[in-house]
Design brief:
Layout (H helix, E strand, L loop, with lengths): L11 H19 L17 E7 L6 H15 L3 E7 L6 H8 L2 E4 L5 H10 L5 E4 L12 H8 L4 E5 H4 L8 H19 L11 E4 H7 L8 H11 L4 E5 L15 H14 L2 H22 L5 E3 L2 E3 L1 H28 L8 H7 L4 H28 L9 H34 L8
Parallel strand pairs: 1-2, 1-4, 2-3, 5-7
Antiparallel strand pairs: 4-6, 5-6, 8-9
Helix pairs in contact: 1-2, 2-3, 7-10, 8-9, 11-12, 12-15, 14-15
Length: about 425
């Protein structure tokens, strides 16, 4: 009779459950009667792979592995469980292997790094990822698998719809951090996901290759959904319950550090909202002020609009003319995404006269500003009176000169960026 050992840290019920499961599997292997629902060394092509990142989780990883294997066996699916160990110094590796998992050792530190390594090692066509702290119910994966088999590329769990048990999520995360970051992400990436940072989700191998997430830290969760949206993948959400984790140590998550990393990723990967539209609005508002005050101060009712307001308009024009080109370049750096995205930018970039046209636009603005300032110079040379009435016109002319010079230099950078896109064949890459 083979002797099995289980971690003493588990509850008595879980110890008995794990022992019975391991004895059952041993009997099947010995008799050559492996059931199709669980992966074994003879299973060459599992249907599903569960991937669990792990860092010192010896008190909970066996529970998660056992639950996942039992779920796959119940569903009759050939499957495997991979534990992506991120350098545990406790007994996590030993415990995970005894529970039936395949352990992948990941040297690069970080939540995302562990998951990427584990997913790359997966053999299943469907991958389900989730934490190994028993905060997610690994025994109830039916909805994720059904969502993928229904034609979705990515199925997200939503903890706010499924229920959050008392003590499972800090109040700061539950009522501020997660809702705010999810709302910002939803608006930035135009994806109908209400819980962007849920750690349990399912996707196909093909979808993961198209998403190409590479962030080693906690922002991996945001990057995956953002890239899925930019790639035009079909995304669905299912309600899941979040339970208090069973660890006896503080979580690896650091609220403000990891929250900033998520926000940083969102802002740097949403050029439309951060650069393009703010730039356009600033230019329009600035031009409206400059044109309205071009001939001098204006009084509307009891309010006097003088030189201070045309200076404000000039400032808005200059800021907008600076950040709008940054947004265009950011979109080109990230990639233009599927053909139905960034249609205007795609059309402009495809024109053979891109450099010449942009140079002509900048040159026209420059010449216009120079003409205005030249007329003012001639007036100054030919008059002995003051020129206080020309201050507004001088501000407008000088602003136009600066914008014209910016456009001219931007034309060459834009041309270089387009050449790089053409060389890398990146006009259809995965970002927007």
């Amino acid at each position: 009779m083979t002797n099995f050992t289980v971690p003493k840290s588990l509850s008595p019920d879980m110890q008995n459950s794990l022992l019975n499961y391991m004895r059952h599997r041993s009997m099947l292997v010995k008799n050559g009667m492996e059931q199709s629902g669980v992966a074994s060394p003879r299973d060459d092509r599992p249907r599903v792979t569960a991937v669990m990142p792990c860092l010192n989780e010896d008190k909970t990883v066996a529970i998660c592995v056992t639950k996942a294997l039992a779920c796959f066996e119940r569903l009759g699916l050939p499957a495997e469980v991979i534990v992506a160990d991120n350098g545990s110094t406790d007994r996590s590796v030993e415990v995970a292997e005894r529970a039936g998992a395949r352990v992948v050792h990941v040297k690069t530190k970080g939540y995302g790094a562990a998951l990427i390594a584990g997913i790359n090692a997966a053999r299943g066509k469907i991958i389900i990822m989730g934490d190994s702290d028993d905060s997610y119910d690994w025994s109830s994966l039916d909805g994720f698998i059904e969502g993928i088999e229904a034609g979705n590329d990515l199925v997200m769990g939503n903890r706010f719809r499924g229920g959050i048990e008392p003590g499972a999520m800090p109040a700061l995360h539950r009522y501020l951090g997660n809702p705010v970051l999810s709302l910002v992400s939803k608006l930035a990436f135009k994806v109908p996901v209400g819980d962007f940072h849920c750690g349990m989700r399912a996707f196909t191998q093909d979808a993961f290759r198209r998403m190409q997430p590479g962030s080693p830290g906690m922002e991996f969760a945001t990057e995956m959904v953002a890239n899925a949206a930019h790639s035009g993948l079909k995304i669905a959400e299912i309600p899941i319950k979040l339970y208090p984790d069973k660890r006896d140590r503080p979580p690896h998550l650091r609220s403000f550090r990891d929250g900033w990393r998520h926000l940083r990723y969102i802002l740097s990967h949403a050029p439309d909202h951060v650069f393009v539209w703010p730039g356009v609005l600033m230019i329009l508002a600035g031009m409206a002020l400059v044109l309205a005050l071009l001939r001098g101060p204006v009084t509307i009712g009891s309010h006097y609009f003088g030189v201070h307001f045309i200076i404000l308009g000039a400032m808005l024009c200059l800021i907008g003319a600076t950040i709008l080109p940054m947004g265009v370049l950011a979109k080109m750096i990230l990639g233009l995404g599927p053909p139905d995205r960034s249609r205007v930018l795609r059309t402009l970039l495809s024109r053979s006269w891109l450099l010449e046209g942009t140079l002509a636009l900048g040159g026209a603005a420059l010449l216009c500003g120079l003409a205005v300032d030249s007329l003012l110079l001639l007036r100054w040379l030919n008059t002995a009176s003051g020129m206080e009435d020309t201050v507004h016109l001088a501000i407008a002319g000088s602003t136009t000169i600066v914008i014209g010079i910016e456009i001219i230099f931007f034309a060459f950078v834009l041309f270089l960026a387009r050449e790089r896109l053409e060389k890398d064949n990146s006009f259809g890459s995965t970002q927007d």
